Amino acid sequence: MSTAASLMVEADNLTFTYLDSQTVFQEFNWQVAEGQAWSILGPSGCGKSTLLYLLAGLRQPTSGQVRVRGEPIGRPRPRTGLILQDFGLLPWATVFQNASLGLRIRGFYGPDGTHAPRDEEDLQIQQRVSFWLDRLGLAGQAGSYPSQVSGGQRQRVAIARTLALSPDLLLMDEPLAALDAPTREGLQDLILDLRREHGLTTILVTHSIEEAALMGQHVMVLGDLPNRDPVVLSEPAAASAAFRGSHGYTDRVKQLRLTLEAAG
Q1: CATH class for domain 1-79+169-264?
Q2: What is the largest CA-CA distance in the chain?
Q3: How far apart are CA 178 and CA 184, in angstroms?
Q4: Is 137 buried (19+), middle (13-18) or exposed (0-12) by CB count in 10 A?
Q5: Which DSSP symbol is given to 210?
Q6: What's the pLDDT score for residue 121?
Q7: What is residue 165's three-state secondary structure?
Q8: What is the average per-residue pLDDT within 82-92?
């Protein structure tokens, strides 16, 4: 599929079993090349979120290995961004404070475990967070609290908080599921634009066939446990806002629906 030098993610004979002895992945192999856009689709309980947390270093394999840029993942990685469905915002903190939270936590520990000078850290946070709030249309809400902005704006804050960390790998677990259709489509387009602008590798977990068809050049369909050999459907024209209005998009939705029905 790709040379080892260009691989972003590798799952090598990955097995993961919960304490209740339910095996979710068994000798599972998968590769994601740098810059690719993937969607992970499947019914509830098939292991979509579990796989994302394994990639993020929040869970550890029972056996086998997960590698990002060739390095085994034993803990969360500084340049892996994770966006969740519930936004994860602090209700007592402003939009700016929430967007800067990741940088402040990383600054406390230092990107390599070395504490940065306080004045340099504050200046970098101010500049970087201000840039992303402006890019995501939130500059006017910087002093507002989460309860004072819309659901779509709250998710934009979560995106700003993640992108301020300059990730090269962006993991998303149903980040738009709770939003209304127009807001959801607008944020889908925004994520696709940001991916193109910054060369991000993206992996999106979703229950939505339509979202998976749009957001992933490659769609991995998980099914009955344990997952061993998932179905992967590829469409190079996807992961573009323009793809939404094409005949290829309609055809792909139909194909994914049939594949999902067969996998379930």
Answers
A1: alpha beta
A2: 57
A3: 9
A4: middle
A5: H
A6: 63
A7: coil
A8: 86
